[in-house]
Design goal:
Helix content is about 35%, strand content about 15%. The strands form five sheets. Strands 1, 2, 3, 4, 5, 6, 17 and 18 form an eight-stranded mixed beta sheet that branches. The chain has a five-stranded parallel beta sheet with strand order 7-16-8-9-12, with helices on one face. Strand 13 and strand 14 form a beta hairpin. The chain has two domains: about 5-55 and about 115-160 and about 395-550, FAD/NAD(P)-binding domain, CATH 3.50.50; about 170-390, no CATH class. The protein contains 18 helices and 20 strands. About 50% of the residues are buried. Helix 2 (about 30-40) packs parallel to helix 16 (about 450-470) and helix 16 runs parallel beside helix 18. It has helices at about 5-10, 30-40, 60, 80-85, 95-110, 200-210, 235-245, 245-255, 275-285, 290-295, 305-320, 325-330, 350, 400, 415, 450-470, 480-495, 525-540, and strands at about 15-25, 45-50, 115-120, 125-130, 135-140, 145-150, 175, 190-195, 215-220, 225-230, 345, 360, 370, 375-380, 380-385, 385-390, 405, 435-440, 475-480, 545. By secondary structure, it is of the alpha/beta class. It binds NADP nicotinamide-adenine-dinucleotide phosphate. NADP nicotinamide-adenine-dinucleotide phosphate binds near residues 163, 202, 219, 222 and 392.
Length: about 550
């Protein structure tokens, strides 16, 4: 808060309230497109509040070494602007963090977005005023803004999770969470480094640190089925191909299951011969990326028996790459089915354990008991470090909402309403919270898809709804409780037809002690979900109730 604003609040002086059509929270992929859409295409007054001091969201915060996209660059971007897609050149199949950030900075500049973004400002409270039918939004900088619409572009993985390990504060060395990485970087040369966590992030960061540090210890609680990324530089032919076929490629990713460029095999694993399966798995392995996960046989994420075929195949691949059999066994996942935890992509991860300066510690068998001033103590002994890196993930999907005091009708806090798990209609709206829109919120396909594709769908759908309201003189929209109940039930039913809920993952809220165990994203697929959203709109926004400016039902 600026000192003038602070003085004003302390003195109880009348607050300076700015009126806007829309407040957008967050300047990542979602917030930037929402601002462009609402401001430039629809003529609304809109402002983004962004906690960071630059745009980029995920790509602003996650600056750790090795941070890299794991979606193909030519579809891990916006599709809405032809000039943008023509002028931008990707350097690799999977761009690194700096390139991703550079892209989003370019977008912000191209569409002149920065003038309506207030950086370094965190939204702390948002209260729906039932008298005025507007949101009153407050920030940690002392801003008070009144807005008709509140757009939460918070990111699904933006609330960093540092586990509450005894002694955490006593560590005398340097300590970092990967999602709050210092801009100036960290030099690991000559250092003894501990990395806690072996999810998608831990795998990326450990691979890089192993090259630089004097010694690296990786603390692994759950072994993962990491797949080779298959990254490669972009060549002129590939660039020509995707630019010439852009419309066709995007038409496909907008309507398929995951928003990625992997085609399912179209048959079930249990009907294929072992030789056919071997061929299919090997081809996908060699191509790199998520093919084994998102472009495999139709039954691998539904039938345990089918899943065993691919789980065992990937285990063998891990064994082939690690020299020491004890380490290979530790790295081999045996407690969950392949693909039910987010599959990490790797670029030489397993080979780091063949180096003399890298050690793997299994903290499932011997959990971390304490952080000490000099390192980490497990049941089996103490490990000394100069630097500790927490690659311990996020309070996913609901965490970013819970960090803000969002009060809807009757002053109810959203986090109280969601105490037993999120309740939304279409993952976009929640009953009792009129005119609040979530972009890639819980119970939408979001994290199970290629995010920019899901984000564009949400922003376009939300702006379609706002346009509908404007054309019909409507000021307030809110889902009905019945529509919401049906969506919550449907989203859980779909998840429970698969193997996903059987594994303890952040998809299930299982990584955060005390968090309700419900499946968070929507597993019905992006294409089907898009169709459902379009049908809702075509049927006059069924499941929603509208009111005019005075609050009369319409
Ligand atoms: P994560 O998948 O939640 O992994 C966190 C890791 O920390 C896990 O290995 C977890 O073990 C471990 N951990 C947590 N608390 C611990 C404790 N108290 N003691 C020991 N270990 C502990 O988080 P993440 O790796 O940051 O990835 C989160 C998501 O971000 C990914 O799934 C992905 O969707 C996204 N991501 C994407 C990219 C990309 O696109 N390139 C890169 C990185 C991340 P358990 O498994 O036992 O809980």
């Amino acid at each position: 808060m600026s000192s003038t604003q602070q003085d004003r609040r302390q003195a109880g002086a009348e607050e300076l309230i700015t009126d806007l059509d829309a407040v957008i929270v967050g300047a990542g992929f979602a917030g930037l497109y929402a601002l462009h859409k609402l401001r430039d295409e629809m003529g609304l007054s809109a402002r983004i509040f962004e906690a960071g001091d630059g745009v980029g969201g995920t790509w602003y915060w996650n600056r750790y070494p090795g941070a890299r996209s794991d979606s193909s660059s030519w579809i891990y971007c916006y599709s809405f602007d032809e000039e943008l897609r023509e002028e931008w050149q990707w350097s690799e199949r999977y761009p690194g963090q700096q390139e991703m950030l550079g892209y989003l900075e370019h977008v912000a500049e191209k569409f002149d977005l920065n003038r309506d973004i207030q950086f370094g400002t965190r939204v702390t409270e948002a209260t729906f005023d039932e008298e005025t039918n507007r949101w009153e939004v407050r920030t940690d900088a002392g801003d008070v803004v009144s807005a008709r619409f509140l757009v939460a572009a918070l990111g699904a993985l933006s609330a960093a999770n540092v586990p509450d390990i005894p002694g955490l504060e006593t560590f005398a060395g340097d300590r970092y969470h990967t999602a709050e990485w210092p801009k100036e970087g960290v030099d690991f040369t000559g250092e003894r480094v501990g990395v806690i966590g072996t999810g998608a992030t831990g795998i990326q960061v450990a691979t890089e640190i192993a090259e630089q540090a004097d010694h690296l210890t990786v603390f692994q609680r759950t072994a993962n089925y990491a797949l080779p990324a298959g990254n490669h530089p972009m060549d002129a032919e590939l660039e020509r191909w995707y630019k010439e076929n852009y419309d066709e490629i995007w038409e496909s990713v907008r309507h398929n299951f995951s928003g990625h460029d992997y085609d399912p095999i179209g048959k079930v694993a249990l009907e294929a011969t072992p030789e056919e399966r071997e061929r299919a798995f090997q081809e996908r392995w060699e191509r790199g990326g998520f093919g084994l996960w998102l472009g495999n046989y139709d039954d691998i994420l539904e039938s345990r028996e089918a899943n065993d075929t691919v789980s065992e195949w990937v285990r063998q691949k891990i064994w082939e790459r690690v020299d020491d059999p004890v380490t290979a066994e530790k790295l081999t996942p045996r407690d969950h089915a392949f693909g039910t935890k987010r599959v990490p992509l790797e670029m030489g991860y397993y080979e780091i354990f063949n180096r003399d300066n890298v050690e793997l510690v299994d903290v499932q068998k011997a959990p971390i008991e304490e952080i000490t001033p000099t390192g980490v103590r497990t049941k089996h002994g103490e490990y000394e470090f100069d630097v500790l890196v927490f690659a311990t993930g996020f309070d996913a999907m609901t965490g970013p909402y819970n960090k803000i005091d969002i009060r809807g009708r009757d002053g109810q806090l959203l986090r109280d309403k969601w105490a037993e798990g999120p309740r939304t209609y279409l993952g976009l709206t929640s009953a009792g919270y009129p005119n609040l829109f979530a972009i890639t919120g819980p119970q939408s396909p979001s994290v199970l898809t290629n995010m920019p594709v899901a984000i564009e769908q949400h922003v376009e759908w939300i702006s379609g709804l706002i346009r509908h309201m404007r054309d019909n003189g409507l000021a307030v929209v809110e889902p009905t409780s019945e529509a919401e109940d049906d969506w919550v039930d449907h989203s859980q039913e779909v998840a429970h037809t698969t193997l996903f809920p059987q594994s303890a993952t952040w998809y299930m809220g299982a990584n955060i002690p005390g968090k309700p165990q419900v499946f968070l994203p929507y597993l019905g697929g992006l294409g089907g979900y898009r169709q459902k959203c379009d049908e809702v709109a075509a049927n006059g926004y069924e499941g929603f109730a509208f009111a005019d400016r005075e609050g009369s039902n319409a």
